[in-house]
From TrEMBL:
Entry's EC annotation: 6.3.5.4
Keyword Cytoplasm set for record: no
This protein's name: asparagine synthase (glutamine-hydrolyzing)
UniProt entry keywords in alphabetical sequence: Amino-acid biosynthesis, Asparagine biosynthesis, ATP-binding, Glutamine amidotransferase, Ligase, Nucleotide-binding
Positions of L-glutamine binding: D96
GO molecular function term, any single one: asparagine synthase (glutamine-hydrolyzing) activity
GO cellular component: cytosol
Top class in the EC scheme: ligase
Domain of life of the native organism: Bacteria
Keyword Nucleotide-binding annotated: yes
Catalytic activity: L-aspartate + L-glutamine + ATP + H2O = L-asparagine + L-glutamate + AMP + diphosphate + H(+)
Record GO biological process: asparagine biosynthetic process
Length: 614
């Protein structure tokens, strides 16, 4: 797990590479070489996890000198991949980086689909005069790039690209899409000249000529055919796949820990890790000072005691809450509406003081139907059209202030599938976005539609399955996994996601819908298997989510929020309608839950504050 930086015809020095030094404090390297007529620089900051010796140093150059690799991530099946390579190859060490280098040399672009891991890498082929950028199937690792007449720059983070390509302007259409979806779906960012490689894609740059041409391709697997078998057989197969995934992701030459919440997902990962881990398994949990329902320390402690984990706990207060939101916004680089990045900051800081690698339970909800929106699709098909059409006005008549209920009721009456999916995601609807920034959202449907088409969602039997597949590749990669990677790597901590193991997700997405979710609950097969390892009181705990008490804090500190977001001299004020922002703040103060909307607006405010967008 590391940080990569590279360029074509735009040289950089060690001080630019050091902008991502936090991602890899153990080693670094810069390699300069020519491909055709072009000057290429590859840079790498290393966090040593597998093969701590100099044999794992990057940039990694083949013995013949024709191939160069910079790689961020882990290839969990790399030992299996080595067996497919020529037997006469002489490896210098046992790193997955060296396996990847030779695998790409021998199998080229076609070999990318064989990689079971989390990765963002660049591979230069001097013979074919090509550079390939690739991102893992579910976008666990970020990878950004920018191309102009000057050349090409790519990196694990935006910061170095901005330093080398400092001509970025605000993309107004991307801002409208961000306000709607709560994240910028790949390939867009808020900068007009900076894109990100979408999950499950690789981009090939042809550097044989003066002009640098590129082509983006989707390499990841299509949605599989439905698995057959009895309920018991499917549960057993699910358990075998999950256990194999956890075992694979324990691959490390340094100590591994677990991020432990009070819920079933992290508890199940911890139970399986404990079974296969050699040594004392450490677990880490964050709670909040004061009385908040979101605090999970007591539940997590019960799980840790049951499994015999070495449990490390920290309670946090919010004496500098705005300062923390600003710092998280700086680290994550892209504004998000997800408040769970706040506890993640403290959790990563705590864990990094004990281990270099952690496993997390993140990624179970999307492919296994854990969210309400999937159950809503199942409920919707059983509701007569007249009932669907009166749900929203009924909630409004009753005076409910639950924003989630109102928006959920609104989606029930939408018959066109893509419009309904967009409505499910909305933080702000199109009318609200127009009032906020005077811009309509023309992007979101196409960004989601790209994966809808690539996954051939039209052939899926049920809309809930389509929504789950889209979330697994969009909501996860560009929202939840985005902040998880940036924040953990800010503390030089590698975060692994066993639930998104390639083979496991293939199996989960092949399961019949009724084995994953019904109108009452989701993750059915997950819970059924968990009964073999965990007591029912852990399995059936009420889902709290990894949240922070921002809802309460925003009401208590409304004057401070208004002082920031309503400042007419700010860069934020040049783009946003402050009168409407004030209405949103007042609605939250009066009891409506506008927590996510306010958190997103704060993130955008700090983004403007730290980025000159001309």
């Amino acid at each position: 797990m590391c940080g990569i930086l590279g360029s074509v015809n735009i040289p950089f020095s060690e001080d630019i590479l050091d902008l991502i030094a936090h991602r890899g404090p153990d080693d670094f390297g810069i390699e300069r070489f020519d491909v055709g007529e072009h000057s290429v620089h590859f840079g790498h900051r290393r966090l040593s996890i597998v093969d701590l010796s100099p044999a794992g140093h990057q940039p990694m150059v083949s013995p013949c000198g024709n191939y160069v690799l910079v790689f961020n991530g882990e290839i969990y099946n790399h030992q299996e991949l080595r067996q497919r390579l020529p037997k006469d190859l002489e490896f210098k060490g046992h790193s997955d980086s060296e396996t990847l280098l030779y695998y790409l040399i021998h199998f080229g672009q076609q070999g990318i689909a064989d990689l079971n891991g989390i990765f963002g890498f660049a591979f230069a082929d001097k013979v074919k005069k090509q550079i390939i950028l690739a991102r893992d199937p579910f976008g666990v690792k970020p990878l950004y790039y920018s191309q102009s007449d000057k050349g090409l720059v790519f990196s694990s983070e935006i910061r170095p690209i901005r330093a080398l390509h400092n001509d970025g302007k605000l993309d107004g259409q991307a801002l409208a899409s961000l306000l709607r979806l709560r994240y910028n779906a790949a390939p867009r960012t808020l900068f007009t000249n900076i894109q990100k490689v979408p999950a499950g894609h690789f981009i090939t740059w042809d550097v044989s000529n003066t002009d640098i041409a590129h082509e983006s391709r989707f390499y990841a697997f299509q949605l599989p055919k439905t698995s057959k078998g009895s309920k018991r057989e499917l549960i057993d197969n699910y358990g075998a796949n999950l256990e194999a995934a956890v075992k694979r992701q324990l691959l490390s030459d340094v100590e591994v820990g677990v991020l432990l919440s009070g819920g079933i997902d992290s508890a199940l990962i911890a139970a399986l890790a404990k079974k296969h881990y050699q040594g004392t398994l450490k677990a880490f949990t964050i709670g909040f000072e004061g009385e908040f329902d979101e605090d999970e320390i007591a539940d997590a402690k019960e799980t840790a005691d049951l499994l015999g984990l070495e449990h490390h706990v920290e309670k946090i207060s919010f004496h500098d809450f705005l300062g923390l939101i600003k710092e998280c916004s700086r680290i994550v680089e892209e504004p998000l509406a997800t408040t769970s990045m706040i506890p993640m900051y403290y959790l990563a800081k705590l864990a990094s003081s004990h281990v270099k690698v952690v496993l997390t339970g993140q990624g179970a909800d999307e492919p296994l139907g854990g969210y309400t929106r999937y159950r809503s699709e199942i409920i919707r098909e059983h509701l007569p059209s007249p009932i669907r059409s009166v749900l929203k006005p009924t909630f409004q008549f009753l005076g409910t202030k639950n924003d989630q209920w109102i928006r959920g009721a609104k989606t029930m009456e939408i018959s066109i599938e893509m419009e309904r999916f967009l409505s499910v995601y909305e933080i702000f609807d199109k009318e609200e976005i127009a009032r906020l920034i005077g811009e309509d959202d023309h992007l979101s449907e196409g960004l989601i539609g790209h994966f809808y088409d690539k996954l051939d969602c039209k052939s899926r039997i049920h809309p809930a399955e389509k929504l789950m597949a889209l979330d697994t590749r969009l909501n996860l990669s560009d929202d939840l996994l985005n902040y998880t990677d940036k924040i953990t790597m800010n503390f030089a901590l590698e975060c692994r996601v066993p639930m998104l193991d390639l083979e496991l997700v293939r199996f989960m997405e092949s399961l019949p819908l009724e084995r994953k979710v019904n109108y009452r609950e989701g993750k059915l097969i997950h819970k059924a298997f968990a009964e073999k390892l965990l007591p029912k009181k852990i399995i059936n705990r009420k889902k709290k989510g990894f949240q922070s008490p921002t809802n309460t804090w925003f009401r208590e500190e409304m004057d401070i929020l208004k002082g920031l977001l309503l400042d007419p001299t700010s860069s934020f004020a040049k783009v946003f309608n402050l009168k409407y922002v004030d209405q949103i703040l007042n609605a939250h103060a009066s009891g409506y839950n506008k927590e996510k909307q306010i958190f997103l607006l704060l993130g955008i405010y700090y983004w403007f504050d730290s980025n000159d967008t001309n």
